Amino acid sequence: MSDLEILTFGCRLNLWESEAMRGLAREAGVEQAVIVNSCAVTSEAERQTRQAIRRAGRARPGVPIIVTGCAAQLNPSAYAAMPEVARVLGNGEKLDPAAWRDTAPMLVSDAASLTETAGHLIDGFAENTRGFVQVQQGCDHRCTFCIIPYARGPSRSVPLGTLVKTIKHLLEHGHREIVLTGVDLTSWGGDLPGKPRFSQLLRRLLALLPQLERLRLSSLDPAELDADFWHLFGDEPRLMPHLHISAQAGDDLVLKQMKRRHSRTQILEMASLAREKRPDVALGADLIAGFPTESDDQFERTLRLITDAGLHYLHIFPYSPREGTPAARLKRLNGDVVKARAAALRAAGAAQLERRLGSLVGGTAKVLMEQGGIGRTPCFAPVRPDRPAAAGAILTLRLTAVSGEHLQGEAA
Prior knowledge:
Structural class: alpha/beta
Helix content: 25-40%
CATH class of the largest domain: Alpha Beta
Number of domains: 4
Shape: globular
Largest sheet: 5 strands, parallel
Strand content: 15-25%
Number of strands: 18
CATH architecture of the largest domain: 2-Layer Sandwich
Radius of gyration: 21 Å
Strand order of the largest sheet: 1-2-3-4-5
Distance between the termini: 40 Å
């Protein structure tokens, strides 16, 4: 086991930040520690974080455990009180080199006051061929179910020049694909001079980095995708045909209660436009099961959205109240109902994915190999080739069969 161990929970942004922290900790001389990068998106995520801390304490007695991330930001004293925990760092401190040289047991700033941008160069992701790059941090919206703006602070964008430097560094260290991440990715630029749009960021990155072979995007807000984005998506083959929608629900009244800025119709229009521009596109979505007051009919509209919009890769979150959010004051549904609805959404998503994978059989694809013998097509379909291949290789494979949740491939 490595002397410096990082346990990461939650989003892709946390993955990036974990690797940045690995470098900062080493630079500060932290040679032995367990860093727990927590998530607070659901109460289940917090429960898993606490379990991981206890397990780490049993597995590595005497090794300092440092807890950071959104759960630690929101309730630092609770984590500091755990006997296994040596230090608690807030979201504003975990990417600050000075915080890793400090020895104070708790360093947590008010998230609402955060104004700095991020963009640390990292040597991490040694086991991945996809490099994650944080382009934006925080969120200015207040969805009624979401606690993350209180943990991450306001939206702050990483300047273009910093992003180009970071991506060049990753490409030079062997990454063949870059994934842009953020809390509210499409809000990038709103706090920068001239207020550039997210689509402008994509155009500039692709123009300035001709060596970048594959650019992939994480979760997108359908309310913020402009015409220029769709022109670029249709014209630029290096922009991967894989879009993940921050949908959350498929019923208009539930979306209004969530204080989302899009409608069911906008989700369907986005899906249709994406297929018009790139017929091979794969679509994913975040969906919440069992939001308070959700009726059977409203749930059915969300369930039908999976087939109506043709969603393949789903992240399903059973609703869990977060203290301090408006939705936590609404009447909750029975827990068994929430679980059943989450299971129904997952089953519908699995059926869609099976059909999607089946539709790819007989075709060919350029597959970027990762660790573990599985690679990904541009539309994110997982493929296992018929012979071993090094991570980082891009293989042209004929897709021959579906095997469980992945495709089988052979040299074309």
